[in-house]
Amino acid sequence: MTDIPTFAIPPTFLGVERTDPSAAICIAGIPYDLGTSNRPGARFGPAAIRQASRMLVDGDHPANWGDPAKFDLADIGDFRTAHGDILGSLAKIEAQAAPLTHLVALGGDHTVTLGLLRALATRRGPLALVHFDAHVDTWPDSFGLVWGHGSPFYHAIEEGLIDPHRTVQIGIRSPMHKAVHDWTVGKGVTIIFAEEVHEAGPSAAAERIREVIGDDAAAYLTFDVDALDPAFAPGTGTPEVGGLATWQTRAILRRLAGLDFVGMDVVEVSPPYDVSEITALAAATIAWDYIALLAPRG
Question: Which of helix, strand or coil describes residue 206?
């Protein structure tokens, strides 16, 4: 228990004081939103998520009674990007992520995940992917923008960064061209639509995810905050109605303990559209939940 009031916690993730990149788990912000196709502002997401994380420091995580803030954890600050240059930014993101043992990235729009996957796949080979989102993000382009937040997993599949047969997308519900859907499923990706989660429940969704990913695959978790319904996450660039509730998402994640996660990101928090920090707090809590999942491995 901290003796510092939550409102006075240092402005790092969970208030951690360590900043060196040799930690077992590193937090890094990626203040980038050049790939956004609708409402910008995700470049301000990392600061908002860190600020909201102050609500998570006064006690242990109830899933395992460990305190993620006391793990071998460091907040190494924000990655550098090449302002106005999407490909240059992806290269910088990849280079900065490459030497880190285990990265939890705070976005930023979903384009950043492509750079992070490139860095990890160079070390680990094609990764299994657990992808929470309202959108499949496998479009070959977004309104003519080839390297944008609507296409990171199109490129990740084409570049062999992820194994599509061990990729599962949860919370999908946006308008979608049938050709995009058919290409995605044809590559082997499993889609769990938001309505399926509502009808079958978090336990069934988690069981399906575990079946797809398997226990022996290095897995990456990417969480687009618009997987949540706008009632729970209004502060995002491309909101879609009918999404997951925050409790459903957390219940699914808790049931994924034991999977071999090797990194994660939470993206698309756009503070200019948030209300009372609820989107930023949801994103911070998802990252907190993820770090807690790693506790059984020490």
Answer: helix
Other C-beta atoms closer than 10 Å to the C-beta of 231 total 12
pLDDT score of 142: 85
pLDDT score for 296: 65
Task: Judge whether 44 and 31 are in contact, CB under 8 Å.
Answer: yes
Alpha-carbon distance 228 to 194, whole Å?
A: 9
Please answer whether residues 89 and 34 qualify as being in contact, where contact means their C-beta atoms are separated by less than 8 angstroms.
yes
Q: Which two tokens mark 129?
A: 């992917």
Separation CA 144–CA 140 (nearest Å): 9
Backbone angles phi, psi at 78, to 5 degrees: -105, 145
CA-to-CA separations, 294 to 66, 67, 187, 217, 263, in angstroms, rounded: 10, 11, 30, 15, 10
Give the phi and the psi of residue 27 in degrees, each rounded to 5: -100, 130
Q: How far is CA 276 from the centre of its chain?
A: 21
Give whole-number Cα distances, 204 to 198, 239, 293, in Å: 10, 25, 19
Tokens 């071998």, residue?
A: 72
d(CA 43, CA 33): 5
pTM here is 0.96
At 168-187, the pLDDT tens digits run: 999 999 999 999 999 999 99
pLDDT, position 58? 85
Q: Are 222 and 131 in contact (CB under 8 A)?
A: yes
User: Which distant-in-sequence residues (6+ apart) come within 8 Å of 14 by Cβ?
Assistant: 53, 56, 57, 68, 69, 73, 75, 288
What does the pLDDT read at residue 8? 87
Q: Which residue has the tokens 């939890």?
A: 104
Dihedrals phi, psi of 142, to nearest 5 degrees: -120, 105
Confidence at residue 177, expressed as pLDDT on a 0 to 100 scale: 96
The CA distance from 223 to 171, in Å, is: 10
Residues of the chain with pLDDT under 50: 1
Cβ neighbours of residue 150 closer than 8 Å, sequence gap 6 or more: 35, 37, 110, 135, 137, 139, 141, 142
